[in-house]
Amino acid sequence: MAGKSIGIGLMGLGVVAGQVAMVLQEKADTLAEKAGCPLVLRRVKVLPEDLARPQAKKMPAGLLTTDDDEFFGERGIDIVVEAIGGENPAYEYLKRALSGGKHVVTSNKEVIAKHGVELLGLARKHGVGLQYEASVGGGIPLIAPFKHDLVANDISGIFAIINGTTNYILSRMAREGIDFAAALKQAQKLGYAEANPVNDIEGIDANYKLAIMATLAFQTRVRPEDIYREGISRIEARDFRYARELGFTIKLLAIAKQCDASIEARVHPVFIPSDSFLAKVEGVYNAIQVEGDLVGKVLFMGEGAGARPTSSAVIADIVSSARKIILGIGSVSTWKAASGKTIKPIDAIVTQYYVRLSAADRPGVLAQIATIFGNNKISISSAIQPESESRTKTAEIVIMTHPAREKAVQKALRELESLEAVKKIANCIRVEDIEGG
Amino acid sequence: MAGKSIGIGLMGLGVVAGQVAMVLQEKADTLAEKAGCPLVLRRVKVLPEDLARPQAKKMPAGLLTTDDDEFFGERGIDIVVEAIGGENPAYEYLKRALSGGKHVVTSNKEVIAKHGVELLGLARKHGVGLQYEASVGGGIPLIAPFKHDLVANDISGIFAIINGTTNYILSRMAREGIDFAAALKQAQKLGYAEANPVNDIEGIDANYKLAIMATLAFQTRVRPEDIYREGISRIEARDFRYARELGFTIKLLAIAKQCDASIEARVHPVFIPSDSFLAKVEGVYNAIQVEGDLVGKVLFMGEGAGARPTSSAVIADIVSSARKIILGIGSVSTWKAASGKTIKPIDAIVTQYYVRLSAADRPGVLAQIATIFGNNKISISSAIQPESESRTKTAEIVIMTHPAREKAVQKALRELESLEAVKKIANCIRVEDIEGG
Lengths: 437, 437
Fold this sequence. Notes:
The structure is a homodimer of 437-residue chains. The first copy, chain A, is of the alpha/beta class. Chain A folds into 3 domains: 6-139 and 307-327, 3-Layer(aba) Sandwich (Rossmann fold), CATH 3.40.50; 144-303, 2-Layer Sandwich (Dihydrodipicolinate Reductase, domain 2); 349-431, Alpha-Beta Plaits (2-Layer Sandwich), CATH 3.30.70.260. Chain A is built from 15 helices and 18 strands. The longest helix of chain A is centred in the C-terminal third of the chain and has 21 residues, at 307-327. Chains A and B meet through helix 2, helix 7, strand 12 and helix 13 of A and helix 2, helix 7, strand 12 and helix 13 of B. Strand 12 (296-303) of chain A pairs antiparallel with strand 12 of chain B.
């Protein structure tokens, strides 16, 4: 391949794109050796407002263009690297790149979660590769294991702390006993949460990432809207207190399980045993536990976001695309929908539940509550009444159930709410009896 | 590729080979889909004594052969899977397979640690692949990350709990306060340690695995004999007690670090902070923390041994070899020795030390000891004298040093030993100030 080089076209000039451009430049020699030939940045597609960014100033001026046609018309580009983020216009750009016979590397979780299967089909049709390792978990290898390393396994479960912002907030709440609002404010102050944190705290980001992993792991199309989703904003300091007393901690988990012919996929806060490995993952770290029939439990952990870790995955995908181009390989995706697997509705799942409610502090109330659980065929494993406030004659009651069907629990909660003695269902959190490492 | 199939020749019929054969059979359909064509077991090379094993009984009799020439003469074999273990005759078999133009998959850590670089060269020469993911860490992806996922990184450190037997023994000692001999006996009873445990407890197994990972990560040939090695048999229950009091636990770590132009590579017991992630890895689990300039810290954890996890990696390598054969790709190894990196001798490393010794219980002794440390330019961070036995007038003294050079510490220990007041240097354990996750 002497004399040849691979041309890169970069889309976007945010922190990730800027970092990718810098690494391509600074590590040009070692990357050329690893890829098999030099990787040359040929063009960078930016928005007019990007031109004022510090990253733009560091770029040779001739590389930058704000014009789509100019970018896609550049004949020297072999690999298009998309680091714009968001659904549009990235989605249109990816289709245009693939249709134009370019190999594509993307860090875009939203586009892959929503349109990944279609884009893989398009890549196959045009004989090019579509790589998206950076779309999930920053630099932690999470796509490659499903595509390659764990390929011999029937995957039975994925349990993932896959959003650093929420894990940071929950870690501080757990450690310091502070409330959600205070922890969020701290996270924002330190740059771990955005000014508008809704994508993180409502589990939308985790939802996209789970859709991508579950689609790969189970060879079944799992769309973001197929995944039940609940955020962390309802969790209070006292939920952590009770969790600890009961031997648990609270994490936002993205869970996907295969049972029989159906798949469970959900993102919500869970009680997990405090001696489990995932319980020990603190701060902005991500950790993904995968269970397979041969491999048993494997866990992958690291920084799940940030420009540098994300660039690690983007560059690895670029190198791998370059190697394929040199070897003359086009699309190698083997993704195919396995037939007959359906997504189980949340109503049908069976798990344990933690329920915290406030009720009138008088004899007989607990019996009324227990009766409702019993009528709905939900066994109670423990009921504690840790606090009562004499002024308002209100008692707090915490109930842990045995495994029960979600539908029955939701019905019981509605019935409890209508009881005169029950003032408020303060929280209901599912319990995931994940084993320790 | 309709009508075509890939032929597998299996060498060995131990538990791993038996498991691989079973998976190839039971998952034939899904593996064919993932590989791109059927994977057919064509021949199994066994020893005469293997014929009596239960695995042999399950195999179609026509597949088994005890004859080398018959096995290597079989034209239908595309991929040779070696699961014999040990250096010989496996090494000769691998050379013969590669020279005969067969792709090779092996789980053999000893052969790869000792001869991997040479065998990769042979594979390149004959245009075939050599894959060895199963040689390190069972089903945990530990070779692929260095070859692919982390390729953009300059790796600065590898910190690995890579031997399940020793981690099981140390976990029990930590938790139950029992002595090494008792913990070893328990491990043997449960099948976690062999009757002759020397390969595990003396760190030989970990040494091979570190040699493989370090060679890949640093693109420098790191031979088993380049790696300083110390086992765990000298650790006593009281070392765990002091470790805990000082905020540490004890693990057998395989450590490889890159600093300047040289590489540190060593396997020995270490004190690590008890709030670090590796400290929380218990029982037979393996965990490998890798540090790279872009990715930061990533951790891979899982069962590092056993037939099923190991078969997960072997089959993944078979599938990947098959995909390459179908695509017409030969050798893709990009391993190349990076110039100018040397292995630092253990004498030259700088770290902190825990030293436990027994000395005469009388005034002035601690001063004598401290003087020797001082003369060797070793700063003491703490010295405690937790126990003294009045009958023998012996005091136990525990010293923690600031970072010091190994050579100076060894010299100080020899001088201490020659002191009349010092009865015995009971232990000296290095401290690795690995950060928490």
